[in-house]
Structures are given as C-alpha cells and as structure tokens.
Amino acid sequence: MSDKIKVRSIKLANHFSEDRINITHVEKPHGEYSDPIVKIDITEFGKTTGTLEIPYENIEEVISALRDSEEVCSEITHPDVHAELDADVGGGQ
Where are the domains of the chain? Predict the structure, then answer.
C-alpha cells in the first residue's frame, strides 16, 4: 500500500472555478519495492483530468525543462486579449 503526503495545491491561473494543480509525494506507489515518486494531477470541477508521475531522479531535469519553457514563452509576442475590456480577465461585452 502506498503512503501519500499532500505537498501543495495550486489554483490554476485564469480559471474561475476551483480548478487546481495538486502535488503529492507518494511512497511505494507500485508496491513494496518501488521507488517514491512525485504525483502531479489537475482537477477541474472536482474531477481529475490529468495525472503525471515523476521519479525523484528526474525532478531537477523536469524543473529545468519548465524553466526553459518559460523562456520560450517570454520570447514570443502575445497579444493582450483583454485590453479592449480594460480588465485582467475576459468576460464579454
């Protein structure tokens, strides 16, 4: 049986509901002799819509790739889709 320890729950940006990114430490995820992992799942409207299990040996590389992704995103010009509303989030007119 695996032991789970909730590490953090993060509200998804630009979502009005309680959609969240949940990060959990899991001991023995696949039986007595399996290595611990970090589990990341997305919940939307209270239901899990995606799950990722990452071995701790890969954590630093995953974090590095996420930072690289931030750099890629920052190099691309994104239009301010809410500018005409003079608001931080969309809504309609």
Answer: 3-76
